[in-house]
Amino acid sequence: MRATVGDKLVQHGRVVGQHDQVSEVVEVMGQEGNPPYRVRFPDGHEAVMSPGPDCQVRHEEKKQRSK
C-alpha cells in the first residue's frame, strides 16, 4: 500500500450497516509512500494509522492545467 499527501484512505465497514470511514492523508511517515500515515477525518481530528486489509487508498486525481 502506497499513498501520497492528499490521497484518501478508505476504511471499509466491517459489519452490515456500518459506513466506510474516509480520511485524507496529511503526512506520509514511512519511506517511499509506505505506512504509517497521519490522516485527518472530516470532523477535523487527526490520527496516525497503519492501514490493514480492510483499507483502500484512493489516489488524488491530478488536474491538468491548460495553458
In total, how many beta strands?
Answer: 5
Strand order of the largest sheet: 4-3-2-1-5
Order of helices and strands: EEEEE
| Amino-to-carboxy terminus distance | 34 Å
> Would you tell me the structural class of the helices and strands?
mainly beta
Q: What percentage of residues falls in helices of 4 or more residues?
A: under 10%
Number of H/I helices: 0
Strand content: 35-45%
Question: Structurally, how many domains make up the residues?
Answer: 1
Tell me, rounded to a whole number, the average pLDDT: 88
Gross geometry: globular
Rg is 13 Å
| Main beta sheet strand tally, sense and closure | 5 strands, antiparallel
Walk me through what this model shows.
Residues 48-67 are annotated as: Disordered. It holds the Pfam family DUF1918. With 67 residues, the chain is mostly beta strands. It has one domain (8-58). The protein is 0% helix and 36% strand. It contains no helices and 5 strands. Strands 4-3-2-1-5 form a 5-stranded antiparallel β-sheet, with no helix packed on it. 9% of the residues are buried.
